[in-house]
Amino acid sequence: MTDARVVVVGGGLGGLAAAARLAARGHRVTLLEQAERVGGKLGTVAVDGFRFDTGPSLVTMPPVLERLFADTGAPLHDVLDLQRLEVAARYRFGEGAELDLPGRRDEIAPALDRALGAGAGAQWEAFLGHAERVWHATHEPFLESPVSAGGLARLSLRVRDLAAVAPWRSLRGVGARYLRDERLGLLLDRYATYSGSDPRRAPAALAVVPYVEQEFGSWYVRGGLRRLAEAVADRCRALGAEVRTGARVAGIDVAGGRVRGIRTADGDALPAEVVVANADAATVYGGLLPAGVGRATRWRLARTTPSSSGFVLLLGLDGRDPATPHHRVLFPPSRAAYDAEFDAYRGREPAPSPAVYVHAPDDPALRPGDASEAWFVLVTAPRHDPGRGVDWDAPGLAQRYAERVLALMAERGVDVRHRIRSCTVRTPADLERETLSPGGSIYGTSSDGALAAFLRPANRSPVDGLYLVGGSAHPGGGLPLVTLSAEITAGLCAARL
Q1: What are the tens digits of pLDDT across the range 283-301?
Q2: Which candidate, 453, 375, 373, 326, places its Cα nearest to that of 58?
Q3: Does the pLDDT of residue 126 top 60, yes or no?
Q4: Residue 170 or residue 452, greater confidence
Q5: Residue 241 neighbours by CB under 8 Å, 6+ apart
Q6: Is there a contact between 199 and 188 (Cβ–Cβ < 8 Å)?
Q7: I want to staple 76 with a disulfide (CB 3.0 to 4.6 A). Which of 69, 114, 439, 477 is the partner?
Q8: Which of 172, 192, 217 is the last residue of a domain?
Q9: What pTM does this model have?
Q10: Cα–Cα nearest to 33, from 219, 176, 233
């Protein structure tokens, strides 16, 4: 049992999970969150009796969460009610074909054949076979371990693994080897957006994303995924960690090449032997550290591509259709139209015809009565960048784009405009203000580029005693990777302490 002071900056899932793991090891942990409640992007909004998750809507790789709870106290199933989705998502393609993608891998190929024609299932299974090889090549040495030049070198020396990862190919490029049906190509493209990336530039290694979802299943937390953040925060407190909200950190103090503590916006100084930063890496290196510290990492971050953001409608609807799928994706009419969405990431206007994602859980806890539904509608969108890109605070833009998204839904067979009781719009600018993510980038940097997924900021910083955790650090964004990031970081901290 040790008694070292650890300060965690930021109460997103990564910070909470790292705090719980370090508290379970006996360290004195203080977590500071700038918002009035913890959770970061695992947020929730209540409007007129409706409640909406405003962040992730799926749990994949449940074993990662099970390990977090088992390592810190009572098991996951004692704390949260995870329910496996029998239909992971309903996909609608441009010509009107619909696919209910099963939540179990052995049911996927027959469903594809029924929806898209004979042979579609075999094409997808061939791709998943490749993705499985990538998974086995990368998950232990990369996703579950600290990133290092030595680790990448060892991977490069394993010829079969290197051929599977294929860093010289894009995700779309590797998909083209297996998927002759353009609709399957659209399905694969969608997984690049899970990391805020462009499938034409994202590395082939992202093939693990659909593999993980379909191998481990898609799961939902009854009561909303916000409950996951609350459960980990409760675990932190039960282990003796101090969790402070409304406490914004203004700087990380460094002297003699090592971390000394933090300063809050209120002027308080909190000494620490170890600081774990669950803030965006660009914010840590560009705003919290003293000038000149971490210059090389700051230079490298300035040359990376930020991830995309999201434009969101929170719809409280009158009436309820029991056949409404938990998830629905409405694709644009063609791959060319989908490519225009990715081109818009770097443009000055949002995409005119983006894919539309709808999360509509059948959960009584999220609606005011049985004759209603709470829908979270998302389109991937350019980040907020008034100087060089889209200014989401420009007068009228948010409302015009909200109307455009609702019209696209209607064109694609899902017209709910006559049912709307309440409509709340959330733009990338809103996300930036609420979470302090630059531009509202959901995942920090994108995975665009041959080695981008392998070159995120490391969990161990160049400053002795300072560590990074969360979606902008290794191994990346999304609930499972953020939870793995916390596991890696806590292990590094424990070794240091």
Answers
A1: 999 999 998 887 777 777 7
A2: 326
A3: yes
A4: 170
A5: 19, 20, 22, 23, 29, 30, 31
A6: yes
A7: 69
A8: 217
A9: 0.92
A10: 233
